[in-house]
TrEMBL record:
InterPro entries: Fe-transptr_FeoA-like, FeoA_core_dom, Transcriptional_repressor_C. The keyword Iron applies. It comes from Flavimobilis soli. GO terms for molecular function: transition metal ion binding. Keywords: Iron. This is Ferrous iron transport protein A. Residues 1-86 form the Ferrous iron transporter FeoA-like domain. The lineage of its organism: Bacteria, Bacillati, Actinomycetota, Actinomycetes, Micrococcales. Pfam families: FeoA. It comes from the Bacteria.
Amino acid sequence: MDLVDLPVGATARIASVDVGADADVTFRLGELGLRPGATVRVLNRAAFGGRVLALGTPGASASRGAMTGMRLGVDGPTVRAIRVHLPAEA
């Protein structure tokens, strides 16, 4: 499943990031925390297919969807290049 397919409020684990042959972009996304194994939660949909994500681990109030970490806006093409696993699939 692609990250773009996750509904707002859903949490998943990143399986892979495939932005093509541009190693610099892949490296930068990894520096930001968007790498295999990271946990993301979709907070909001943005224009042109982008998403606002919470990146990190579920916090103490995880039942309300809180995450410890950071929030990150990601553009549509990048969101479509990130494959994720839902908790039941992981």
